[in-house]
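2024-03-11 09:14:02 INFO worker-7 job=invfold-0412 stage=load source=structure_tokens
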């Protein structure tokens, strides 16, 4: 297949970079984004053609950066179910409520999307060894896809990340380093290894391609709702790459005429014990401050400072969205409610979105009749410790 990528662009200063070479951050220290010839994509493919392809995220290959299909490393990720859950949770009052269940991806989380795209492109560019810090699930996903691609993977994660994440990294043969601290401390350790050994730095937004895999969430939401966009998409943000990816996907779809009207309001949910994006949004800031003493049992939300925070805040504001923080207690209640009423074992992060919209509706930021899509980013089965906390004896 032909690639429709034109160049890489700095998200802050708009400097251009050659996508045919290995690139990481801009010289100004900001993330690079992949840009495409959207007119050429529109001329090359249409919605019915995409709809006839295999149900994985690679059905949208024209919107993705891999040039040679032989380099695609896929385990069937993407095109996860879009489930109507309003009737099952009718006591909450929402009449058009949907859940995008990304816990059914390989490795049990939406991190498989970014890993599939990131590893595929790294392989295509000749990378042999990747490295990343993680709060948990991203480490397992990148270790998995690196193993499938025959690459070496180095992972650093907090000691108190879910134990399953430690085990899966080791199972896939990754070099795992455990740190007493947060993902920010794990990041420092990986940065040292990158500098000393020349590993390919696959930390969040330090390479351009993870976000492209996450972008497929937005493409799928549009297609699965018959190309009619919802009123709001609610996303649990740690690093926030998914919400940036969804935003970029919807902007691209609108640019080529595949969707019409206003974009959905993008809404960010965080935990009260680690809510730097919510604080920055509320205070009208363009970037967040480092969150001291970050603590929440939603391990994927325990990110005290995201490299792409300014892009997350741009996405929320550009779409008229908002941000809200929820307690671990409310999240636990919603984990039980979702499981007991819908049969979906949602990750704490996914359940936090339901707690978030309850709070937003109560304060008047969401209407009960609106079409709302919640993103469940992972399977609750990967959070044995969290399940033990919220499950009745």
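2024-03-11 09:14:09 INFO worker-7 stage=emit residues=393
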């Amino acid at each position: 297949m032909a690639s429709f990528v034109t160049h890489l662009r700095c998200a802050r200063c708009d400097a251009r970079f050659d996508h045919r070479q290995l690139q990481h951050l801009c010289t100004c220290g900001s993330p690079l984004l992949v840009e495409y010839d959207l007119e050429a994509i529109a001329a090359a493919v249409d919605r019915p053609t995409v709809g006839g392809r295999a149900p994985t995220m690679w059905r949208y290959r024209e919107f993705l950066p891999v040039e040679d299909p032989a380099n695609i490393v896929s385990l069937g990720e993407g095109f996860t179910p879009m489930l109507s859950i309003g009737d099952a949770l009718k006591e909450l009052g929402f009449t058009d409520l949907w859940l995008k269940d990304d816990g059914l991806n390989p490795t049990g989380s939406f991190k498989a999307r970014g890993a599939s795209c990131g590893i595929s492109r790294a392989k295509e560019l000749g990378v042999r060894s990747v490295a990343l810090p993680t709060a948990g699930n991203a480490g397992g996903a990148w270790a998995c896809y690196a193993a499938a691609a025959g690459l070496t993977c180095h992972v650093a994660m907090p000691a108190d990340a879910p134990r399953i994440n430690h085990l899966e990294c080791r199972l896939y043969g990754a070099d795992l380093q455990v740190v007493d601290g947060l993902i920010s401390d794990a990041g420092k350790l990986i940065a040292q290894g990158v500098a000393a050994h020349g590993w390919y730095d696959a930390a969040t937004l330090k390479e351009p391609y993870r976000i492209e895999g996450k972008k497929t969430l937005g493409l799928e939401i549009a297609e699965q709702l018959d190309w009619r966009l919802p009123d709001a998409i609610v996303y649990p943000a740690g690093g926030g790459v998914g919400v940036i990816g969804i935003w970029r996907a919807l902007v691209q779809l609108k640019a080529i005429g595949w969707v019409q009207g206003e974009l959905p309001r993008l809404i960010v949910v965080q935990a009260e014990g680690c809510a730097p994006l919510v604080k920055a949004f509320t205070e009208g800031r363009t970037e967040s401050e480092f969150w001291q003493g970050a603590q929440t049992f939603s391990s994927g939300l325990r990110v005290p400072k995201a490299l792409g925070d300014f892009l997350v805040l741009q996405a929320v504001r550009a779409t008229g969205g908002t941000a809200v923080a929820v307690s671990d207690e409310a999240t636990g209640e919603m984990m039980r409610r979702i499981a007991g009423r819908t049969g979906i074992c949602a990750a704490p992060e996914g359940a936090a979105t339901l707690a978030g919209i309850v709070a937003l509706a109560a304060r008047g930021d969401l209407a009960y009749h609106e079409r709302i899509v919640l993103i469940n980013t992972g399977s609750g089965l990967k959070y044995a410790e969290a399940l033990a906390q919220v499950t009745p004896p």
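2024-03-11 09:14:09 INFO worker-7 stage=report msg="The mean pLDDT is 96."
2024-03-11 09:14:10 INFO worker-7 job finished
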